[in-house]
Design goal:
heterodimer, A: Rossmann fold, B: alpha+beta, Sulfite Reductase Hemoprotein, domain 2, five-stranded antiparallel sheet, 36% helix, globular, binds protoporphyrin IX containing FE, binds iron/sulfur cluster
Chain lengths: 170, 561
């Protein structure tokens, strides 16, 4: 189990992620009750079934998934999870930046998959606010050191829309 | 040059502490090798044949004497007393201990040096013209925008894990000395109707798939360069291939989509960011540009009689002036290239003692600053004509005055099989053998301008594709062989060389080069450089000479049926 970090604490994850098993398809997979994170393909195929009666809906985006395809649906989601299959696959950073900056998605944005200490800083900057730190890693050290290795940032991003040069006083 | 302020400096110190903690966690087993590798690469540290290699950034090639003295110290204290200047404005150490690197970084930080993003699949060091700010043919000084871009690339959150490495070069002069056609992004500064801006080139690169870049936007006013680069990088980060490292550079994406479609994606992306907060302000440009103001030049005559007299009296000095000095925009000054290509030493190598001599020369004669060129030499940019003789004598005593800039023996050469794990063949011994064969200065001067570039494998760190003569190490049945190309060139007319035929053994290489030179000498018209003759007569005469007496390789005879 990954360790879920939110607001500098390790918290209990109330969500489950729907997995499409052997022999199942997005069209056939059973839709469990409760707080469920649905893969994009399932959401797209079964939206009409998923929406009625559910208070909390989550969405899972894989690196290949295009944010543009769900832009109109974002109001439905209480959480969007962006999957990093390997931490060196940086597509999720652009996914997050687009969700926050272009489509103004406001609710929980969670990094899942190969989520490690040394990427937390970048993830926070592009707009993640929830991190499923890989199992076995030191969550306390990650919370202590991982988010703020640098005292200032040059570029504009989600967490700081003004680049440093616009914030200079002198 | 740019002086770091408190924030710039704090970020480097933060980086040292971050890396120290990363090394500690790796040693404690909290980070696996796979997890640590990209982190150390982004600090310039990679493991090679003998030891880790460690690459220190010299952003856009500018350095002051205190920084060079620190590099001399670091090379002496933590390595074997020498370093290697690369083709991309970096200094590489070949033998440091991995566990010393946090301490090395801490020492470097004292003089505002670092190794941030000098390797790895991220935004790399920005490179530019070694004569920026002083070249007589300069249109706009590229350094303020290079510094603004450096800050933008540093720890960019969205682009820290790209499909592959990403290199940006800027040029602001009539002649392109920054190889901009062969970078992931190449930027040409120019003025159109009184407006300063860039021509933006994308998708160039050497490496195993050499491709000349293509213009994605003919003119972009300078204020938009950050937002436009963000747009390019976002398109690349999202859609660049990640399934195959050899196909992951942006050049492959641009080829696959075509530059038109790629450009449309970029423009669509840019439409959202254009005129947003990342648009560069005039105030920021002015702040940074103030650091690159002209030094306190003296008002002196454009002609110096004592200098002219010494030139007339001493042939060796005159030769050095001819090859190793460059026109300056201020009367009475010249830019000096200190050659790191003495015969018999690996091109680009410099000892700690030499670094100290260069630092002293810079302090005494060139406002305490120096530059690194992509040809792996050191430049003193602002020397008075009256001081050239003294500079020459002191440089000569330190082995830094080989008058061979632009000549055959001033080669670009990668570390090759002596140091590099990826090599198919050694490259330094080939460079050395060619230098020995052409050790006669009169002969070298007679041959004139010619670029000979050597890489030990198709990764092309030695830029062999753009050498007039290119030499590439290849592996044939586990033996080291060398493939020769002719006609490559850098500059605005940049072009890739063409392979002339079957490859050669190491022992044959000096002969091969000599034959190529002979064909040129026999065929040249007065005032024709090697490249001109080659372009006029074509490659066949060269092939026929080189492959004379061999079964394969000669040009096909035209059928006369
Ligand atoms: C021994 C250590 C080195 C290794 C393992 C190494 C490895 C590589 C590799 C794998 C590439 C190709 C990357 C790609 O196409 O995606 C490359 C490119 C390059 N290397 Fe090196 N390199 C080394 C040293 C150097 C040195 C010392 C220099 C400078 C003299 C250098 C300059 C370059 C340049 C300019 C390129 C870019 C070529 C392009 O545009 O694609 N490298 N290197
Ligand atoms: S060209 Fe090949 S052999 Fe030479 S340094 Fe680069 S990777 Fe190594």
């Amino acid at each position: 189990m990954a360790q879920l970090i939110q607001q500098n604490n390790v918290t209990v994850d109330a969500w489950t992620t729907l997995e499409i098993g052997e022999g199942e398809t997005p069209d056939s997979v059973a839709l469990p009750a409760g707080k469920v994170i649905f893969p994009l393909a399932v959401w797209q195929a079964r939206k009409a079934e998923i929406i009625p009666g559910r208070e909390h809906i989550g969405l899972l985006l894989l690196p290949d998934d295009k944010v543009e395809d769900v832009a109109a649906d974002l109001a439905h989601f209480a959480v969007v999870a962006v999957h990093f299959p390997k931490f060196v696959d940086g597509r999720g950073y652009s996914t997050a930046a687009l969700l926050r900056q272009r489509y103004h998605y406001q609710r929980e944005l969670r990094a899942v998959g190969d989520v490690l200490h040394d990427q937390l800083f970048f993830m926070q900057r592009v707009g993640f606010d929830s991190y499923a730190l890989k199992d076995g890693k030191d969550a306390i050290h990650a919370i202590g050191k991982g988010f703020a290795p640098f005292s200032e940032t040059y570029q504009a991003s989600t967490d700081q829309p003004a680049p440093h040069f616009r914030r200079r006083t002198a | 040059m740019y002086k770091y302020d408190a924030i710039d400096r704090q970020l480097i110190l933060d980086r040292v502490e971050q890396f120290r903690d990363q090394v500690r966690r790796w040693q404690a087993g909290e980070l696996t090798d796979d997890e640590f590798r990209p982190l150390r690469l982004q600090n310039g540290l990679y493991i090679q044949r003998h030891a880790p290699m460690f690459r220190i950034a010299v952003p856009y090639g500018m350095m002051n004497s205190a920084q060079l003295r620190k590099l001399a110290h670091v090379a002496r204290q933590y390595d074997r007393g020498y370093g290697h200047f690369t083709t991309r404005h970096n200094l590489q150490l070949n033998w440091p201990k991995l566990t010393d690197v946090p301490d090395i970084l801490a020492e470097l930080a004292e003089v505002d040096l670092h190794a941030i993003q000098t390797s790895g699949n991220c935004l790399r060091n920005i490179t530019t013209d070694q004569f920026a700010g002083v070249a007589a043919d300069e249109v706009i000084d590229p350094r303020p925008l290079a510094e603004i871009l450096r800050q933008w690339t540093t720890f960019h959150p969205e682009f820290a894990f790209l499909p592959r490495k990403f290199k940006i070069a800027i040029s602001g002069s009539q002649e392109d000395r920054a190889v901009t056609w062969f970078h992931d992004i190449g930027l040409h500064l120019k003025v159109v109707d009184g407006v300063t801006g860039f021509t933006v080139i994308v998708g160039g690169g050497l490496g195993r798939t050499p491709i000349r870049g293509q213009v994605v936007r003919d003119f972009l006013p300078w204020q938009h360069i950050l937002t436009y680069c963000e747009a390019i990088l976002r398109v690349y980060n999202r859609f660049g291939r990640r399934d195959n490292a050899y196909k992951a550079r942006i050049k492959i994406l641009v080829q696959a989509l075509g530059v038109e479609e790629f450009g449309q994606l970029v423009e669509a992306e840019w439409a959202h960011a254009k005129d947003g907060p990342a648009t560069i302000t005039q105030a920021e440009y002015d702040r940074v540009a103030a650091h690159f103001g002209a030094p306190a030049y003296a008002t002196i005559a454009a002609v110096n009689t004592a200098f002219e007299e010494k030139k007339a009296a001493e042939k060796a000095f005159a030769r050095w002036v001819d090859r190793n000095t460059h026109a300056h925009k201020v009367p009475g000054y010249a830019a000096v290239t200190l050659s790191l290509k003495p015969h018999g030493v690996a091109p680009g190598d410099i000892t700690s003692e030499q670094m100290e001599v260069v630092a002293d020369l810079a302090d005494r004669y060139s406002f305490g600053e120096l530059r690194i060129s992509h040809e792996q030499n050191v430049i003193l940019a602002d020397v008075r004509l009256a001081d050239l003789h003294a500079v020459w004598q002191q440089a000569k005593a330190a082995g830094l005055a080989t008058p061979n800039i632009g000549l055959l023996t001033s080669m670009i050469c990668c570390p090759g099989g002596d140091f590099c794990d990826l090599a198919n063949a050694k490259s330094i011994p080939i460079a050395t053998a060619i230098q020995q064969r052409f050790d006669d200065l009169d002969y070298l001067f007679d041959i004139g301008d010619i670029d000979l570039n050597i890489s030990g494998c198709m990764n092309a760190c030695g830029h062999h594709h753009v050498g007039h003569i290119g030499v590439l190490g290849v592996d044939k049945n586990n033996d080291e062989f060398y493939q020769v190309t002719l006609g490559g060139r850098q500059g605005y007319e940049a072009r890739l060389g063409k392979v002339i035929g079957p490859s050669f053994s190491a022992g044959e290489m000096p002969d091969v080069v000599e034959k190529i030179i002979q064909v040129y000498l026999e065929n040249r018209h007065p005032d024709e450089r090697f490249l001109d003759t080659l372009d006029r007569i074509g490659v066949d005469p060269f092939k026929n000479r080189v492959y004379e007496g061999r079964a394969h390789g000669k040009a096909k005879q035209k059928e006369t049926a």
